[in-house]
Amino acid sequence: MTIASVTQLICFVALSLTLVLGALGVVLLPNIVYSAFLLAGVFLSVAGLYLLLNASFVAAAQVLVYVGAVNVLILFAIMLVNKKEAMAEIPGLLLRRVLSGAVCLGLFLLLLRVDLTTPWAVPGPTPLGEDATTLIGIHLFSDYLLPFELASVLLLMAMIGAIVLARRDVYSSDVITGEAADQGLIEKERTPLLLESPPRDTTLLEKV
Amino acid sequence: MPASSIDIPLEAYLVLAAILFCTGVWGLINSRNAVRVLMSIELMLNAVNINLMAFSSYIDGQQIRGQVFAIFVITVAAAEAAVGLAILLSLYRNRETVDMERFNLLRW
Amino acid sequence: MTVFCTLAGGGAPAITALQLNAGAIAPESAVLVALLACLLVDLAGEEAASRWVPPICYGGLGTALVLLALQWNAPLEPSFLGSFLADNLAIAFRGVVAASTLLSLLISWRYVERSGTPVGEYAAILLAATLGAMFLCGATDLVSIFISLETLSVSSYLLSGYMKRDARSGEAALKYLLVGSAAAAVFLYGASLLYGLTGGETSLEAVGVALQTSATPVTALALVFVLATVAFKIAAVPFHQWTPDVYEGSPTPVVAFLSVGSKAAGFALALRLLVGCFESFDAQWKVLFTVLAVLSMTLGNVVALAQTSMKRMLAYSSIGQAGFVMIGLVCGTEDGYAAMVLYMAAYLFMNLGAFACIILFSLRTGSDRISDYAGLYQKDPLITLGLSLCLLSLGGIPPMLGFFGKIYLFFAGWADQQYLLVVVGLITSVVSIYYYISVIKMMVVKEPQEASDVVKAYPEISWSLTGMQPLRAALVGCVLVTAIGGILSNPLFTWANSAVAGTPMLQHAIAASESAVAALG
After folding, report:
1. B80–chain C Cβ distance below 8 A for any pair
2. C378 - beta bridge partners?
3. How many structural domains are present in chain A?
4. Would the CB atoms of C158 and A189 count as touching at under 8 Å?
5. Which CATH number characterizes residue A53's domain?
């Protein structure tokens, strides 16, 4: 065993441990802020695994997008919705957790069986190493051109939509008629929960 | 060093991905905080990415389509997270809660 | 048009001078141009937007429909180096998607303005959803499928949360997003296994070839994972839980699009994945889909009986309708596929006609309860007539369009000896007729004094406001097609059959199943 492969093994074991423990922490810790920071740890160790797999470009993208953007976004969201809130006790919660844990364990055993019994076509051709970045560029502009272009539409829409939904202002009146705007058009038995309830004809609501 | 990654078997990565995926599924079912549900989904997507990257390196070393696929997954995950948090924020303004059990205006 | 790739590095692929065939996505380009134009016009302010956005959308979608018609029966070339294929099946489903967007936009202008939400962004997001759905109908590569699926889904989440001052809308969006993202992750896990199986290919063709020779556990798992996503998209029981909530909470015009456009794209995806790719697992997925179809027809139609809200009733009935369409998918014969295409086209008109009526009613009264429709025929004959015809058609009463669609599906199922499906379909059709008729009875046979308070206080009928004329045009158009299309349905039959005949993938599957039957007999 060479020094290189021992180092690699140690790195793999260390990264796997952080990954698994971090992931368990994300779903189990009661404090959501700790979860968010552990999630960053998970993302970083995944990036480390990519480096072990000879994929430096994707590792960099993982750090930039997941840790730099997604995780920061999640932290912002936690700060914005951080009102202390006593979650009401729910009967049978523990039972539900154990049951779903059993289901997930079953799923894991199934995946494990599939992963271990399938004769994967290894070893394949030798990995490219550092030329991978060039090849990714070639792929994006040849056989993955269509998804690449469509992804730009997706990102544009996600950006515009997120701004539309997250900004506070809405038009208070109908642009055409000038009547008060009314988002309670989706009508049903329960009283609509509007922030600023528009004046409504109460007789309509009393009828079941 | 391209050839050296053969020392760790492909299955090790796949099992790791399976653990991560199942953890994500468990979190998805059991989390009461909506932000944590979003985090669980990110865990599941990362599990998929590990799978793709492992296959890409071990089976598809010359074409690395898996790496390109993983980049697309990262892109979409970011867009989905942004949209999810925007929706969560607009809902929080109306309901003042992020507890999944209290999002019960609509019957499941 | 050709792509030239300079080769860099050691093992780069030798892609030189391959055909791009970008002409295949000309209809999508028209939609994309309309989308960008909407966003630009929106910069000029809300009043400019409400004036110019509608014509831009009509122009874009109309051009797309014309371009699609021109592509019909064109010589078939894979475009974008195997990412996209514009066969007749794809064209038919893309046409249904584009038409459903056009009709949903026609019925939404007044609704969107009334609710004080920006029109420009609304149209842009809906067009993006259309773009995703149209690409999904023709995508032939796992990556393209994933990206177009997500474009459709992300836009749909945004649209369901568009009434952001109403908590129900936000709640529907959040639930849709969480369930939808989880479904996407499951699909991706399946796709990653398929990628590993093929030894590094992502095109559906390569996946199909690899599946013919590979081990069972992994393929079964990939099949289940992929099938779950498809079932989620077409809202088949038991993957339907999101449907009633999302349909109830989302803005009604969005529901109209989701129930037709998004579902049509889901069926196109199902055909492409299951028939084109999991062909060697024919027997397995057909059993699974038989179960899904029986459950969907039963649960959808039975639960719809108990609903008091019009939208929720239509949500459950759409689950049932998806169950009927699945009969055609399970048959796998020429008639089965043609019946699917025909029924989707018929469903487009009858369902959007019904939605146009309930949007008009809720705009005039602010109500959505079925009991509030009591005695409506005296105040508003147009809604009463339109809704009655569309609901009768949905229930499959002759001589409406829906009757011919349904009878063709049942005929195809019977010919393929799917007796269980056809019998369940017939029984649940009768159940569905019961609840459709009870709405009509509510509207028509009530005495004047029994009319609901909402109807008694019914406002003066006026079409003068901006956005009301398009709504009326869509309503009348849909109702006319639903009513007259039944009598003149022959061109539709020919169209549906030539859609199947012009699709090599389906022809191949039909030939394979026929030869299997011949070998047995």
Report:
1. yes
2. none
3. 2
4. no
5. 1.20.120.1200
